[in-house]
TrEMBL record:
This is DUF488 family protein. Pfam families: DUF488-N3a. Residues 20-141 form the DUF488 domain. InterPro entries: DUF488-N3a. It comes from the Archaea. The lineage of its organism: Archaea, Methanobacteriati, Methanobacteriota, Stenosarchaea group, Halobacteria.
């Protein structure tokens, strides 16, 4: 039996608005978690956060767009496209040994029946987030 796989953002956990299985282990996927983030999750797997260069590129592009009057959510969407965030994050997951081992570990836990909820900072109702790519990668591993 495969465990349930879901994702959410830390503010939804803090405000008790996340719709997750009651038995889900909350797995942070943040490269540099804050203390309050760490307190909200059961564990954090920093190897599954986007690499620094990718985050830096995306944030710099978002800032440029915001400086030109683009609203926050739209700047995020456009920056993702402009820096090819999704493809670069997938490439990172495929190429980095520590990220591969972390994905393998989560996939094994899911295959063994553990329910997992991936957690980071971004509200995906408003912005794009790497955890959705990661969730899809894990789901593909379990069905493929």
């Amino acid at each position: 039996m495969t465990g349930d796989l879901s994702d959410t953002y830390v503010a939804a956990l803090q405000h008790d608005t996340a719709d997750l299985p009651a038995d889900a282990t909350l797995v942070g996927v943040v490269r540099r978690p804050t203390g309050w983030f760490s307190a909200a999750v059961d564990e954090n797997v920093p190897e599954l956060g986007p690499p620094d260069g990718l985050l830096d590129d995306a944030k710099a592009r978002e800032s440029e767009l915001a400086d030109h009057g683009v609203d926050d959510a739209e700047a995020n969407r456009r920056a993702w496209a402009d820096v090819d965030f999704a493809a670069r994050y997938r490439d990172y997951l495929d190429a980095d040994g520590e990220a591969q081992a972390a994905v393998d570990g989560l996939a094994e836990r899911l295959a063994a029946g553990e329910s997992l909820a991936l957690v980071c900072f971004e509200n995906t109702d408003e912005k794009r987030c790497h955890r959705t790519i990661l969730r899809n990668r894990l789901a593909d591993r379990l069905t493929g």
